[in-house]
Amino acid sequence: MIEEIFMTQQTALIVGASRGLGLALAEEWLGRGWHVVATMRGDAPGLDDLHARFSDRLEIEHVDIRDASSVRDLGARLQGRRLDVLFVNAGIARSNDKTPVDAAEQDFVDMMLTNALSPVRTVEMLASLVRENGVIAIMTSELGSIADSTGFWPLYSSSKAALNMLMKGYAAHHPGDPRALLLVAPGWVRTEMGGDEATLSIEESIPHVVDMVEANRGKPGLRYLDRFNRELPW
Ligand SMILES: NC(=O)c1ccc[n+]([C@@H]2O[C@H](COP(=O)([O-])OP(=O)(O)OC[C@H]3O[C@@H](n4cnc5c(N)ncnc54)[C@H](OP(=O)(O)O)[C@@H]3O)[C@@H](O)[C@H]2O)c1
Q1: pLDDT tens digits for 91-117?
Q2: What is the CATH number of domain 2-226?
Q3: Residue 90 CB–ligand 1 contact under 6 Å
Q4: Taking every pair of C-alpha atoms in the chain, what is the biggest distance, in angstroms?
């Protein structure tokens, strides 16, 4: 019986789950009966609370996606595991209202490395753990759409556009990959990053995101989607 549960239980790895949307993704999939591997870097009281509620199905791991060796080590620790979902959620926002003339250069460099290069590198390093009918998802943003841009948060938006482009490259370099490759735009959500002015609560975003990811299982190809599974213009 226990073996049967283990065989049928689905597993999600959420990279960057200490707080905000990543923590909510972990909680949502735990609530749906999944096994979750959730990663953090430093302190994560929210994840500790979740572990107290779901100790049998929540594993906590440590990874900093900027540090390639820490991602490689995580992959080694998870060797032999089969993931139904790999979701790279980690991201940062800096110099939000600045433009190239007044932004701190390092903020732009940090966003390009954390939001664009590192998530796709993480996917490259961990993709082999994901089942053939599974989903590889990265949290991008509506702001990553060049076509729809209003100029809001231009540096952050550029890093998400770069993320989208790098995933285009990943998809092109892995033709025939049977897994769904999703660039997920969650809406503007009230978190530390989204701020108090954001239009959506976490509850108005994340359950839809999880429904959308599950709906894409077994559907190969790269798609840029909002939380309602609608295609966004690149
Ligand atoms: N909130 C929104 O309105 C919104 C809209 C569109 C897209 N997004 C995207 O959604 C994702 C989550 O955003 P959020 O609103 O939940 O932001 P948040 O509350 O600031 O949380 C960001 C998460 O990313 C993690 N992280 C940052 N850098 C990392 C690194 N180098 N390695 C591993 N983890 C790292 C943080 O971990 P620590 O606790 O260790 O810092 C934290 O768990 C981001 O990719 C963001 O760009 C957010």
Answers
A1: 999 999 999 999 999 999 999 999 999
A2: 3.40.50.720
A3: yes
A4: 63
